[in-house]
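Human: For the file, kindly provide a plain-text protein record giving the amino acid sequence and the backbone structure tokens, at your earliest convenience.
Assistant:
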Amino acid sequence: TGIQLLALVIFSYASFKINKVYLEFQFELNEIAEDCHRLSKHIEPNSVVLPLNFSGHWITGHFSNYLGVDKPMIILENYECSVGYFPIIWNDKKFPNFTINNLSADQFDHVSWKSNPINPQKAINYIFILGPFIGFDTPRNKEVELLVKNHCELVESNKNAHLYRIK
């Protein structure tokens, strides 16, 4: 009975600590999701949005989809369409050649987006960036920093995300 009581105490303590970690993680993720949704209010309906994730969280890869909760838009990120084990896939043959001021995805070394260069061009209207990206010394960060400096204007920013409109 002493061993059972000790096991019960250890199990209860471990469960409490694990739940505390999960709860803190959920609050952080909820804050990130709410920040994404707040920025969506500044996006015009039927716009094309290029999301770039610099958050460092593996679970936030789909958070850009929160931008399209309240209005129609094209979000150039959808891992469900890309991985091949969900019941939806991209229609590559009809996919437009999405560009930023006539610059196509293949003109960048460290930034990419879904596009089909053999089809007619369609402009990307916004760049949505999740997480910090300015001031970090990586090729991708530097390329995105130049991209927004030369082709975008800041629409709105908050603790977890930035929204830029293509000039």
User: Anything to note?
Assistant: The CA atoms of residues 30 and 132 lie 18 Å apart. The chain has three helices and eight strands. Helices lie at 2-40, 79-83, 139-151.
